[in-house]
Amino acid sequence: MNQRVSVLLSALPYIREFHKKTFVIKFGGSAMVDESLRESFALDVALMSLVGIKPVIVHGGGPQISEALERFGIKSSFVGGLRKTDSQTIKVVKMVLCGQINKEIVSAINAQGAKAVGLSGIDASLIKARALNKEAYFGSLNMQVPSEELGFVGEVESVNTKLLETLLNECFVPVIAPIGIGACGEVYNINADMVASAIAISLKAHKLIYLTDSNGVKDENSNTISSLDAFGAKTLIEKGQIRGGMLPKLHSALEALNSGVKKVHIIDGRIKHSILLEVFTSEGIGTEVLP
Fold first, then answer.
1. 80, 134, 235, 267: which has the highest count of C-beta atoms within 10 A?
2. 6 lies in a domain?
3. Which CATH number is 115's domain given?
4. Cβ atoms 175, 199 nearer than 8 A
5. In 3-state terms, what secondary structure has residue 267?
6. What is the Cα–Cα distance from 149 to 52, expressed in whole angstroms?
C-alpha cells in the first residue's frame, strides 16, 4: 500500500508542472496494430486529459494503407521513404486514415473516459497544404533529391489553430489524420511526423512526443542517448549516423525546437504505458531532445 502511495506522490510534481500544458503526440508503429499496446496508449492519453494536460494526437497508418492498397490491386511504391501518391492511392489513403484508423483511435480513447474527437486536415481546413518541395525536403536530410514525381505528397502550409484551441479549451482530445487540403481543393498525403511537428509549433506546445518502434536515438555504438541537445542532434544527422524512419523524426524535432517547442521525446511505443513512464518519472525511457 505504501508503495502505491509513493508512486502516486512521485507523479504529483509532474502533474502540477504540466497542468494545462499542450502535448502533441505522434502515434505510430507497433502501438497502432497491437491491441494491448493500443489500449495502454488510450489509457495514457485519457489519464493525461483527466489530470488537466491537453493532449493532441496525430496518427500514422503506413502498414494499414499498404495492406488496403494490396487488396485493391494497387502497388505500393516509395521514393526516399515517402509513398508515391497518385489519384487512386490518395483515395485509399483517405479511406484508411480517416474512415478506419482515426475512428478506432477515437473509440479507444473515449472508452477510457476522455472526450476524443476525430479530425483530418480537410475538416475546417485544419491543415492547409501544398505539394512537397523535394529539393528542400531531401536536401535538409542530406539525401539525394529523387528525379521521380511523388504525386499528391504534401507538406504543411498552415494550421487552423483556432479550431484546435477551441476543442482543447473544452477538454476535448483532437485525434488528427495527416492529410491536408490544397488551394484548389486537392488532397495531400503528408508524413505524420511532419504534421505533428507543424501542429506542435502552431500550438506552441510544451512537448512533442514521437512513439516509435525504437527505444530512442542511438550513438555510434548503438546505445540509446537519453538526452540530446539540438546541436548534437544536427551533428548526428550531418555525420550520417541517423538513418531510416528516425531521420525525418529527428529533423522534425529540430524544426519544432527551433520554433519554440520546449522539449521533444522519442520513445518506444512497444512498451506499455511508455508515455506515462517518460513524462511522469525522472528516469524516462527514451531520448529527450532539448533546444
1. 267
2. no
3. 3.40.1160.10
4. no
5. strand
6. 45
